[in-house]
Amino acid sequence: MNNKVVLKVKGLTKIFKEGKDSLEVLKGIDLEVEEGVSVAIVGTSGSGKSTLLQCLGALDTFDAGSVEIDGENIADLSEKQRTQMRNRKLGFVYQFHHLLPEFTSLENTAMPLKIRRVPAAEAQKRAEHLLAAMGLEERVDHLPSQLSGGERQRVAIARAVCGSPVCLLADEPTGNLDRETAVSVFDYLVRLTRDEKLTLIIVTHDPELAARCDRIYRLKAGRLIAEK
Ligand code: ADP
Ligand code: MG
């Protein structure tokens, strides 16, 4: 396996301040993840999992430490460069799919390439390939309202992967699904990121799903503890 480090986090500290009160949610997180590796982050509700992903995804600021993605330190980037980093190097999947309701699976999936002005035929080919890899070849021309919950999440995953990010950040992507569907969607996700050689950071509170990743960390009292 290629062991280029894609994500390098050092001493990441995040404090929420509200008036006189302050809550140190992340107390010096250190993490290094190589290309193509999948990492599950587990932890109780309120332990800071979403906050950690927001910091890794350059969607929230932090108070100390550094986050390097593909050799670029987020803290050194301007707001414009951060947006570029999110669009080119990162993919996001959430508990809710955030698909555009008036667009088909294919159009939603190809969106990251359309924004980058990739020629339509090329974008379509890539989107079709990813939808097929997610088992959705029969759902390419459907609107989100015509899909099941699991299918919508699979489209959201295809879309997040379409722009070939180096790192995919997924926050409880199967949290809204029944057990059986969650397992199926999770397996599709892990398989696709492996095929695409993406680094995957996935938050889940389900230990059985986490076990499907290469590594597991528990976020507890602001620190990461390796479990696998
Ligand atoms: P998790 O995703 O593990 O459930 P979160 O990262 O959402 O946890 O939240 C971690 C802690 O930080 C919680 O105590 C939460 O209330 C607090 N928190 C999250 N976002 C904010 C915010 N914007 N302002 C103040 N406190 C916040
Ligand atoms: Mg959360």
UniProtKB/TrEMBL annotation:
Protein keywords: ATP-binding, Cell membrane, Membrane, Nucleotide-binding, Translocase, Transport
SMART domains the record matches: AAA
Coiled-coil ranges per UniProt: none
GO-annotated molecular function: ATP binding; ATP hydrolysis activity; transmembrane transporter activity
GO-annotated biological processes: lipoprotein localization to outer membrane; protein localization to outer membrane
ABC transporter domain span: 7-228
Cellular component annotations (GO), alphabetically ordered: plasma membrane
Family classification: Belongs to the ABC transporter superfamily.
PANTHER family documented for this protein: IMPORT ATP-BINDING PROTEIN (PTHR24220), LIPOPROTEIN-RELEASING SYSTEM ATP-BINDING PROTEIN LOLD (PTHR24220:SF689)
Protein name per its UniProtKB record: ATP-binding cassette domain-containing protein
Species annotation: Parasutterella muris
